[in-house]
Prior knowledge:
Helix content: over 70%
Radius of gyration: 19 Å
Shape: globular
Oligomer: single chain
Number of strands: 4
Strand content: 5-15%
Largest sheet: 2 strands, antiparallel
Number of helices: 10
Amino acid sequence: MKNFLLRTLTGTVYVVLIVSGIISNVYTFLCLFSIVTILCLWEFYSLINAQKRTKINPWYNCFGGFLLFVSVNLYAAGIFSHAIFFSYLVYIVIIFISELYEKQQDPIIHAAYIFLGQSYIALPLSLLNLLVFSPTDANVIYYPVFVLALFVFIWINDTGAYLVGILFGKHRLFKRISPKKSWEGFFGGLLLTIASSFVFAYFEPDVSHYHWIGISMIVVVFGAWGDLVESLIKRSLEVKDSGKAIPGHGGFLDRFDSLLLAVYAVLFYVQLFIR
């Protein structure tokens, strides 16, 4: 009971922070997800360092991820041209040059882990900026509904999958990677998420309810893959949770794993069919 209350309390705080950060304004969005990017990267590089396979400087490389996020934010907001990405390109060049001087036992492995963190975490979180800013004929507007829907669909799917899986789960979804997940839970979460899409269709009628259904289905499928990918990484590193930063919920990556693949698919769908 104590653990349940702790999970409920921290989960509520987490949801309030995310929702308020998204819907308030562009500045709260920038601050919130800049911090999320840094914390997720720090957690990832700390997991790598704990394996003692190589030694990564988390300060410098978390700054690299922060630099990418801010660059994409300023570009998507129409404040700077694509030249803003020059600063991140400098970071990439420095990574390669620094391998000449750091005397790592295996510089290829060292650089590969650095760029894995950047591509697995910093890149998809940065792409949230392209989803939250909507270009118009006159200017660029802050339009947070798609990012908000992305998170809400993930949360509803996780809740539905958990409850249905607990009650009816018998057929394992991906036993080799995540033995607790079931097909029953997957389809339970899918149906509940599709049902919730009609709420977004009601409050945001400018986007067709067919599109909201499409986005909800994409989030469920790619969110499940994102969750499994993080489970694969944790199995490879022989850890149960990515961290202990969020009491009762594990680490930051445990909370954002579904997002890291779903954002690609949702962004593609929105750009192709809606904007």
